[in-house]
Structure formats: C-alpha cells, structure tokens
UniProtKB/TrEMBL annotation, chain A:
<dbReference type="GO" id="GO:0009098">
    <property type="term" value="P:L-leucine biosynthetic process"/>
</dbReference>
<dbReference type="GO" id="GO:0003861">
    <property type="term" value="F:3-isopropylmalate dehydratase activity"/>
</dbReference>
<dbReference type="InterPro" id="IPR050075">
    <property type="entry name" value="LeuD"/>
</dbReference>
<keyword id="KW-0100">Branched-chain amino acid biosynthesis</keyword>
<feature type="domain" description="Aconitase A/isopropylmalate dehydratase small subunit swivel">
    <location>
        <begin position="17"/>
        <end position="132"/>
    </location>
</feature>
<dbReference type="InterPro" id="IPR004431">
    <property type="entry name" value="3-IsopropMal_deHydase_ssu"/>
</dbReference>
<dbReference type="InterPro" id="IPR033940">
    <property type="entry name" value="IPMI_Swivel"/>
</dbReference>
<comment type="similarity">
    <text>Belongs to the LeuD family. LeuD type 1 subfamily.</text>
</comment>
<protein>
    <recommendedName>
        <fullName>3-isopropylmalate dehydratase small subunit</fullName>
        <ecNumber>4.2.1.33</ecNumber>
    </recommendedName>
</protein>
From TrEMBL, chain B:
<dbReference type="GO" id="GO:0009098">
    <property type="term" value="P:L-leucine biosynthetic process"/>
</dbReference>
<feature type="binding site">
    <location>
        <position position="346"/>
    </location>
    <ligand>
        <name>[4Fe-4S] cluster</name>
    </ligand>
</feature>
<protein>
    <recommendedName>
        <fullName>3-isopropylmalate dehydratase large subunit</fullName>
        <ecNumber>4.2.1.33</ecNumber>
    </recommendedName>
</protein>
<comment type="function">
    <text>Catalyzes the isomerization between 2-isopropylmalate and 3-isopropylmalate, via the formation of 2-isopropylmaleate.</text>
</comment>
<dbReference type="Pfam" id="PF00330">
    <property type="entry name" value="Aconitase"/>
</dbReference>
<keyword id="KW-0100">Branched-chain amino acid biosynthesis</keyword>
<keyword id="KW-0408">Iron</keyword>
<keyword id="KW-0432">Leucine biosynthesis</keyword>
<keyword id="KW-0004">4Fe-4S</keyword>
Length: 208, 468
C-alpha cells in the first residue's frame, strides 16, 4: 500500500491521511480561492490563499483565524478534505483544485460536487469521492472523536476505510482509469486526429 | 425515437465514442485573460499548437479597469495577465478584441453581438457563464483550464451525456417582471444545486415571448442552479437577431443555415428526466436575501427564518446566510438600506438592461448614501446607450457611467466593495465575499437596482413603472 503524492497527471492509487472536516454545504469556488488571487498566470502557489476569507482575519494573511478548521493544530497536515453538499459550486476557475492540491489535499470527500469542479479535480489528479449523507456523517463523527483518525482512500477498490468501517464509492470507470494511470488526456485525443479531421470535413462552412 | 434539443446537438457533434464518454467537436471557443494563460503554457510545454485558431475568439474583460483603457490601470499582476493574453493570441493567430477595440466586451456579451454564436453550435469558454449562449439553441458550457488546453489542441472535449431538465414557464408576464426575475424565481424553486448534472431546456410561452437579450439573461444563470448548460430552442426571434450580424451566414448560406436551425427543437413527445413548471403570474420582482442565488424572495416577501426550511442543510445555510448578510428573519427588504448599486455584467450588461435601468433612473436622483455604477457589457452596448443618451440620464441622476468589463460582478479589478457594504447588484452571484471581503450582495434586475439606487433601500420597481 502506498501513500502516493500526486502532482498533476502522476497517477493516484491508495491514499492514507488525516482529515480536515469542513462542516458546511455549498462551499463555492469564491470561498475556495477568492478572485484577487486569480491574476496569476501560473498553476502554482495558490495553496497559501486557499479559503483565504475564512482562514485569515486580515487581508494580508498574517493573522490566521483560530476558529477555522485548517488552522487547528489537530488538523495540521490533513490531506483529505471532508465536506458536504454541492462542494465547488460557482465559477469554473481551475484555480480551485490547484489551490487544494497546492495546500496538500489529495482527496476531497463530499456528499455531492458541482459538475465543473468535479471535472477539474479529475483533470488535476485530485480525487473527488462522493458518499451518502449518512456515511459523511459517520466520517465527521469519527474525526470528531479522534482528529488523528487515519483514513484510507483506496481508488482501485473504490473504498474509504477508517476505524473498522469500509465504505464503497462510485466513480466513472474512465475517470478512475485516468486517475490511476495519470494519462495525458490531450495526447489520447490527438491519436484520434483522423476522426476529428473527418468530422471537420463534413461540416458546412456556414456553421462557423 | 423522439429526442430533446440537447440530444440532437450532442449527437450532431460526436466525433468518437470512448466508453461512457463521447468526444464532442467544439464549434466555438471563446477565451479571456483569466483562464487561458496556463492552457497556452501547457501547449507550449508539450510542443502543441492551437488546432483551430479560426474558431477561437478572445477578449479582455475580467481583469480590466472600467475607468481607464490602460492595461496597467489595475496594477502589475493584471497587466501581466492581459499582456500574456495578447502575446498568446498573437503567437497562435487568434483574433483578440483587446481593451480599446471597438468589438471588445464581456466575453458573453461580445460573442452574441458579433453573431459568433449560432443555433446548434457547441460553444465553450473557461467561464461558467458560458451557459449564456444557450439562448441561441447552442450547447454552451463553462470549462476548466485543462479543458481549455484540450480544446486548443484538439478542438474537441470528452463529455458524458447529462440529464435533461425541462423548465416550462407559462402565461403572460406581469408588469415589471423581467427576465432576471424569471430566472431568479426558477433558481429559487429548484434550488442552488437543483439542476446539478443536468442541461436545462427552458420553454413555454413566457420564454418564447422573451427577446434574445432576455433569453441570454435566463440562460446565463443556469449554472446558478447547478446546471451545466441552459438551452432555448431557436425561433424567428433568434433568426431576426442574428440576421446581418458580422459573423452570421449571408445569402444562400443564410437560407441553408435557417433551414437547419428550424429543425433544432425537442420533439413534441420527447422525454425529459425532470420537468419543472412555473406560472409567470406568480413571479414578482426578485431579490436574493442570502449567500447563494437560490436564497431569493419576491420584493414584498419577508426575509425567511431558518425554521421555514424543512431540509436541515437549507436550514443551516439560512442561519449562516442571515448572519453574514446581517439581516433578521421577518425583516422587510424595503427596510434594508443599500450603499452600493452595480448595474452591468454578463447577466445584465446589454442595451435592453441599460434602457430598463435608465427608465427608472430618469425619475429621480441617486440617494445620498449610495454609490451607483453602470458598466455597459461591451463597447457596442456603450456606444448604443450613448447614441440613445442613456449615459446622460444616468449621469444626471448621479450614477457613474463606466467603461465595459466584468467589473464589480467579481471585482478582479478595483471595482470592489468593502467590509459591511450592502449592494443591489445585477450580477449573478451573491456568494460571501464575491464583490469584496465582508460585503453583502443582493441580486436583482437592472430596474430593481436602479430603483434601489434612487430609494437608498430596496424598492418595488412596479411603483416606479406606475409613475413612468
């Protein structure tokens, strides 16, 4: 069993880590990474701004908010984010998964995800795990009891394991395959160039 | 087998089928400065090229000043982002409408007004409000930057077929009820995540009666209900809007295009996964009270209490929203003072929006405690408004008349609010901190925003219409 780190496209398999419990529904991408950090032209360096408005009491990120989950000593080093319904709603900014990844999260477990955010996670090797509401409750409870609780997220077996619990999760086979193998999606599509060309040749010019 | 409009457009763009996914051809790719630089970088790193620069159009909108045409007006980071877009477009042969260009505007205002968006197209942009273009009966959706790179390199995207939700709005629209009120009422009914995993097709005689600009307002906020896209079947209103626009087909091509476009509608017996119905007569001018667009009420309804919600998640969200918004259950919106008004955005930055706001603005003066800005959605909208002397109406009433851009919808420039500000905004998101840390956003129509500016608090736009 390996605790693999997952830079984008490196592939992920089994992750073991601690959980940061963010007990809130409808966490939008403006909360995950506010607009003032979107002016960068690179993919890196967003982790320090993750959840900026909640995480810091000041605009300059000098005063951590002691009440925010990521600032609590018992959740330091957490690599699994646990949250609730409709996580990642709002804008399509891929800066959201970039900031989660850059902070050190490898897995986000939620009751549900917004569509664009979910796809952005897959494309950045950040594993989105969707569980039932009661299962999410059980995991929140386990972390409340023991913040150091080790959670295993096993993508090949599609299981989340903690304490003596084993919870299965669904993921589309092609997403699973791409996450495990870390495939170059563009490279795969470029192999279909002849089909793309054939499609283009059939289109009437007025279409564009 | 009978099919929906969504089925037809999806089917017509399948290049290949890969497991559960389809590889869809993308007909139009719109780009802007915020979500494209990392995609261009990715191409460069792999030695790849933009496959169809001719299908790709760029504009500057998010990071630009609304007070100055200088690209460094909002600081070095914004300047670098804008310059990077210009450099990338130059290097890849992509048509860019930079700041100062006659065709520049918010990406979702610029595209339609140039005729770049046609029925039956697949349209993508690294921006969730790409759903706007569904107003033309185009399958249009927002994508992340990895997907922007994928479209650059291949002009395709892997997509799973979503569910299709039919939202039917019927009956005559009451006086003072705008497209913004219709879409906010829809989101209020189905919820902020109510259409997750779905494409919405809007239909019914109320929708058919909307102008193209009004349809764009409706489709624009599909994402605010969690939907991937919104669609309205093209009809004579669509064709009339498109005819003669720069990138619309001409001559015999026009006739061929219209003949095809007329086939783009759901079959009468098409099956939808979910059906939602609203009566236009039940819709009043809307105001959001909370911190997501589903937390919305009619202007004369009291602010709800957490106990009003049966779902525990909604109840909890209401508690948090009331606290953040600094309002109490049972309070009247008319008792809430606003100190900022923003009229603009890809939701409500078009000429009809300017006219609707101006019709109210001319009835008074902006209240003393209010800063009100009007930001046209494009250079073309600004020019048209000025030709109609709407700018004069706004300025005389005490509104500021700005240069086009996304502006205070998300505040990537210097149009941001401060802690505790309360804003009546014609934009699309009332999330915590969206317009500035600690600031409170209430989403409304342009007429409602103008009314709030004059009254210094939320006011029923219908009282102004009666005076008009």
């Amino acid at each position: 069993m390996s605790n693999q780190s997952s830079p984008a496209n490196a592939g992920i398999s089994v992750h073991i880590g601690h959980v940061a419990p963010l007990n809130q529904a409808n966490v939008d991408t403006d909360q995950i990474i506010p607009k003032q950090f979107l002016t960068s032209v690179t993919k890196s360096g967003y982790g320090k701004h993750l959840f900026h408005d909640w995480r810091y009491l000041d605009l300059h990120e000098q005063e951590p908010n002691p009440d925010f989950v990521l600032n609590k000593p018992e959740h330091e080093g957490a690599s699994i984010l646990l949250t609730r319904e409709n996580f990642g709603c709002g804008s399509s900014r891929e800066h959201a998964p970039w900031s989660l990844d850059d902070y050190g999260f490898k897995v986000v477990i939620a009751t549900s995800f917004a569509d664009i955010f979910y796809g952005n996670c897959i494309n950045n090797s950040l594993l989105p795990v969707q569980l039932e509401s009661a299962q999410i409750d059980a995991l929140f409870e386990a972390v409340a009891q023991d913040p150091a609780c080790q959670v295993v997220v096993d993508l090949p077996q599609q299981q989340v394991r903690f304490n003596d619990q084993v919870i299965g999760f669904d993921i589309a086979p092609h997403h699973k395959n791409n996450l495990i193998k870390g495939l170059d999606a563009i490279g795969q599509t470029l192999e279909l160039d002849a089909k793309i060309k054939a499609f283009e040749d059939q289109q009437p010019a007025w279409q564009y | 087998m009978s099919t929906t409009l969504y089925d037809k457009i999806f089917q017509a763009h399948i290049v290949d089928e890969i497991g559960d996914d389809a590889l869809l051809y993308i007909d139009r790719h719109l780009i802007h400065e915020v979500t494209s630089p990392q995609a261009f970088d990715g191409l460069t790193q792999k030695g790849r090229e933009v496959r169809r620069p001719d299908l790709t159009f760029a504009t500057m909108d998010h990071s630009i000043s609304t007070r100055s045409l200088a690209i460094d007006a909002c600081g070095p980071a914004n300047k670098l982002q804008l310059q990077t877009l210009a450099d990338n477009c130059e290097a890849n042969g992509i048509q860019l409408f930079p700041v100062g260009h006659q065709k520049q505007g918010i990406v979702h205002v610029m595209g339609p007004e140039l005729g770049l968006i046609k029925p039956g197209m697949t349209v993508v942009c690294g921006d969730s409000h790409t759903a706007t273009h569904g107003a033309f009966g185009a399958l249009a959706f927002g994508i992340g930057t990895s997907q922007v790179e994928h479209v650059f390199a291949t002009q395709t995207l892997k997509q799973s077929k979503g569910k299709c939700m039919q939202v039917k709005v019927s009956g005559a629209r009451p006086l003072g009820v705008t497209a913004k009120d219709i879409i906010l009422a829809i989101i209020g009914k189905i919820g902020h995540a109510g259409a997750t995993g779905c494409v919405i097709e809007y239909c019914g005689d109320t929708i058919e009666g909307l102008s193209m600009e009004e349809r764009m307002t409706v489709c624009n906020m599909s994402i605010e209900a969690g939907a991937k896209a919104g669609l309205i079947a093209p009809d004579q209103t669509t064709f009339d809007y498109l005819e003669g626009r720069e990138y619309a087909p001409k001559g015999a091509d026009w006739d061929a295009a219209v003949a095809y476009w007329k086939t783009l509608k759901s079959d009468a017996d098409a099956k939808f996964d979910i059906v939602v119905e609203l009566a236009a007569k039940d819709i009043a001018p809307q105001v959001t009270w909370g911190t997501n667009p589903g937390q919305v009420i009619g202007v004369n309804q009291p602010i709800p209490a957490p106990e009003d919600f049966s779902d525990p998640i909604d109840r909890d969200s209401a508690v948090k929203a009331l606290k953040y918004m600094d309002i109490q259950a049972g309070q009247k919106l008319a008792d809430l003072t606003v100190n900022h008004v923003f009229i603009g955005s890809c939701t409500n930055g078009r000429i009809e929006d300017m006219r609707a706001a101006a019709a109210i603005a001319k009835q008074g003066k902006v209240a003393q405690n209010v800063t009100a800005i009007v930001v046209p959605g494009s250079v073309a909208v600004k020019a048209q408004a000025e030709a109609e002397q709407l700018d004069k109406i706004f300025l005389d009433a005490g509104f500021e008349w700005r240069l086009p851009g996304c502006s205070m919808c998300l505040g990537m420039n210097d149009d941001i609010l401060s802690q505790g500000d309360r804003c009546a905004s014609t934009s699309n998101r009332n999330f915590e901190g969206r317009q500035g840390r600690g600031a409170r956003t209430h989403l409304v129509s342009p007429a409602m925003a103008a009314a709030a500016a004059l009254a210094g608090r939320f006011a029923d736009t219908r009282d102004f219409i009666a005076n008009d």
